[in-house]
Design a protein that fits this description.
338 residues; six-stranded antiparallel sheet
Length: 338
């Protein structure tokens, strides 16, 4: 009896999202899918839709009755039905790092996010220096919280360009939470391959901002808008760092690999809710640093070991009145352990 009631609930939620006749095929596919769901799968899907958060909701595996046929189409259909009606193909979605599905496809729509491809910095690889760093050459970059140093740069046997050797230490990055010019609490080391940064998240694990900030802080109003916040994840296969925006508001990112080499002002990228982007790569960051070091026209220090993320409010460029991130009420500095 409960199974029938839950199916009616999910079909009602699906019906409320139907806008055009083009959605009829998606509706039919999802109805057939729900008919093969077991009670636990129906409950998990209903909980995911109510909470709009997949981190605390288990994966929904493909029903055994359906076998392996049409799994990609089913995943796209359920994401299109309950999240993004404009979704055209699965190449524009990426699985969240907390998804533990043993299958290549998970049918929990909140275990996916939209993928945005932000181009990396264009490097002049033909003129890129190939020599290794000398032992007395300083590769330190000053950050808001002190110095973060690169290790020795050596040529890769697979590439003519130098790459950064990174020791497998206990943590791959540390998080510094700031409110304007004031750093709040100690550095938060990240040992797991992903970390959630949030203000309030039921049963959430990670870096809770409300636990370290004072309730009477000036940033309290903005911080409450962060909600489920962001997820930062390391793909050890490619040494890529991904940022997932799980908040209901945009976040703004400045990364050394996402801005032109000849820029004199920080280039800040806006990441909308339910979107993700690749925001850092350890090897590429090393290439950028070496390229900038060889440019005699540049003056001053360059920080290639960290990225900065502001919540809710943007900064920099001509689009925002705030020209410095230290004027933002809530922002995060990610210091990479290189």
């Amino acid at each position: 009896m409960l199974t029938i009631f839950r199916k009616r609930q999910l079909k009602h939620k699906l019906k409320s999202r139907i806008v055009t006749k083009e959605d009829d095929q998606t509706t039919t596919t999802v109805h057939n899918l729900l008919a093969n769901f077991e009670q636990q799968q129906l409950d998990n899907l209903n909980l995911a839709l109510d909470s709009r958060d997949g981190s605390c909701i288990p994966c929904i595996d493909l029903p055994t009755k359906l076998g392996g046929k049409g799994t990609v189409d089913l995943a796209m259909a359920i994401c299109k039905a309950y999240r993004w009606s404009e979704l055209q193909n699965t190449s524009s979605v990426k699985k969240m790092p907390f998804c533990k599905s043993s299958n290549t496809i998970c049918l929990n729509p909140f275990h996916y996010t939209l993928f945005i491809d932000i181009p990396f910095t264009s490097l002049d690889l033909f003129n890129f220096p190939n020599e290794a760093c000398q032992g007395d050459e300083s590769m330190c970059s000053e950050t808001e919280t002190g110095s973060m140093c690169f290790q020795e740069i050596i040529p890769s046997p697979r590439s003519p360009y130098p790459v950064m050797t990174r020791s497998r230490s206990k943590h791959w990055c540390s998080l510094a939470y700031w409110e304007r010019r004031n750093r709040v609490s100690r550095l938060f080391p990240v040992n797991h391959f992903y970390v959630n940064i949030f203000d309030r998240l039921p049963k959430g694990e990670g870096f809770c901002l409300s636990a370290v900030s004072q309730t009477n802080s000036e940033s309290n109003k903005v911080r409450k808008c962060i909600g489920t916040g962001i997820t930062l994840a390391l793909d050890e296969t490619n040494d890529d760092v991904w940022l997932y925006n799980r908040s209901e508001y945009a976040v703004f990112i400045h990364s050394p690999i996402l801005e032109p080499l000849d820029t004199r002002t920080p280039l800040v990228h806006k990441l909308h809710p339910d979107h993700c982007a690749k925001v850092y790569n350890f090897e590429f960051a090393t290439r950028v640093k070496r390229q900038r070091a060889s440019d005699t026209r540049r003056r001053g220090r360059y920080d290639g070991c960290s990225i900065r993320i502001s919540f809710v409010k943007g900064w920099g460029g001509e689009s925002y009145r705030r020209q410095c991130i230290t004027t933002c009420e809530c922002w995060l500095e990610v210091l990479f352990n290189t």
